[in-house]
C-alpha cells in the first residue's frame, strides 16, 4: 500500500476500504506518513467528503492510534462535554465545575484554539502554574477526589488526531464534517466518559455556517457515540455573535469568574444553566433550572473551579488578576439605536491580530489581549456610549479602531437571538 495511491483514490471521489484507512492513520501516527502527504489527504477529503462508513472507520482508526482511558474506577456516571468551536466560548470553564458541584464526575480533555476560535486549554494556561499535561493516573485520582479535571490531550491518547488537529488548522481543512466528527468523537471515545454533551456551534463565528450542516454534523457524532455505547446528545447553539462579553484568554477567565459570582449577563448565565441541565440528565439527575442557577451564582460552582485550579498547580491569586495589557481603548458608539449585529468571525479575527489567537500552530499567544463588550445584540445604545474595550500591547491606530466600529451594526429594531437552536438525541 502507498500513501500517494490513497490520496489519489480519495481525490478522485472513491471510497477507501477500512483496511486502507487503518493503514494510513497508523502510518501517520507512527511517522511513516509525513505531514505533507496527510495535508494532501485532508484536502482531498475536504473536496470529496467521506461516506458514513468511512467516517466511522476514520474515527475508530484514530481511537486505535493511542491508548484509551479506563475511568471505571471512578464512581458514578462520568460526563464529558465538547464544543465544535466558537468566539468567546468560555462555556467549559463554567459548565464543568457547575455540573461537578452536583456530585457528577466531569472528566474532560480539551483542545487549543483553531483559527479564529479560542481553545479552553489556552484560557486555562493564562492562569499562572496551571498544568494541562497530566498522567492518566493523576487525571483519574483528581476526578475521584474532587469530581473534576480539565486537561490537555496526552501524546499517547488518539495520537493521530493530535497531529492532524494541528495540521488542519494551518492547511484550511478545519471546517469539513468527516474531519470534525472523527476528531471530536475519537477523543471523546478514547477519554472514557459514559455520557457526552456536544455543543455544535452554527453561524458566522462557527465552522458550520448553516443549520442544515450543523444538523448533519450533530447526527453524525451522536450516531458515532451511541454506536460504541456512549450516551450522546448534541445541542446546536447560535454563534452569530461572540459568547458572553469577552474574547481573549485572560479576559474570558475573568468573565467566567464573574458569571460564577452571579455577576454575568443574564443571557449567557441562562444558556449555561440549560446546558448543565442536559448534562445532569445524561448522568441520571433531574434538576430544575432554579436549583442549577443557585449552584452557579451562590459560589458552589466557583468553589469547584478553584479546587480544580489549585489541584492542577494554578495560582489562585493570579487567577483573579486583571489583564496586564499595556493599552485599554474605549470604543464609543457613533449612533443611537439597538445593537443589531456583532459578527463573531470578524471579532474573532480582530482578536487574533491582537495576539489572542494563532495564525499558525507555532505562533505564541498573548494571554492578556482581547475585547470586552459592554453591549451585545439587542441592547440599547446611545451616541457616545461605550460599546467595548480593546486590550492590546500596542497602541491602536485610527484605522484599526474604524475597522472595529464598522463591524458593530446598529439598527432601529430590538432583536434577541436564541442561544439553543435545536437538540439532537
UniProtKB/TrEMBL annotation:
Catalytic activity line of the entry: 2'-deoxyuridine + phosphate = 2-deoxy-alpha-D-ribose 1-phosphate + uracil; uridine + phosphate = alpha-D-ribose 1-phosphate + uracil; thymidine + phosphate = 2-deoxy-alpha-D-ribose 1-phosphate + thymine
InterPro entries attached to this UniProt entry: Glycosyl_Trfase_fam3, Glycosyl_Trfase_fam3_N_dom, Glycosyl_Trfase_fam3_N_dom_sf, Nuc_phospho_transferase, PYNP-like_C_sf, PYNP_C, Pyrmidine_PPas_bac/euk, Pyrmidine_PPase_CS
Gene Ontology molecular function: pyrimidine-nucleoside phosphorylase activity
E.C. number(s) listed in UniProt: 2.4.2.2
Enzyme class: transferase
Keyword Acetylation part of the UniProt annotation: no
Entry keyword set: Glycosyltransferase, Transferase
Keyword Transmembrane helix included in the entry's annotation: no
Entries under SUPFAM superfamilies matching the protein: Nucleoside phosphorylase/phosphoribosyltransferase catalytic domain, Nucleoside phosphorylase/phosphoribosyltransferase N-terminal domain, Pyrimidine nucleoside phosphorylase C-terminal domain
Positions of the Pyrimidine nucleoside phosphorylase C-terminal domain: 338-411
Listed cofactors: K(+)
A Pfam family matched in the record: PYNP_C
Record note on quaternary structure: Homodimer.
Role summary: Catalyzes phosphorolysis of the pyrimidine nucleosides uridine, thymidine and 2'-deoxyuridine with the formation of the corresponding pyrimidine base and ribose-1-phosphate.
Family of this protein: Belongs to the thymidine/pyrimidine-nucleoside phosphorylase family.
Name this polypeptide is given: Pyrimidine-nucleoside phosphorylase
Lineage start: Bacteria, Bacillati, Bacillota, Bacilli, Lactobacillales
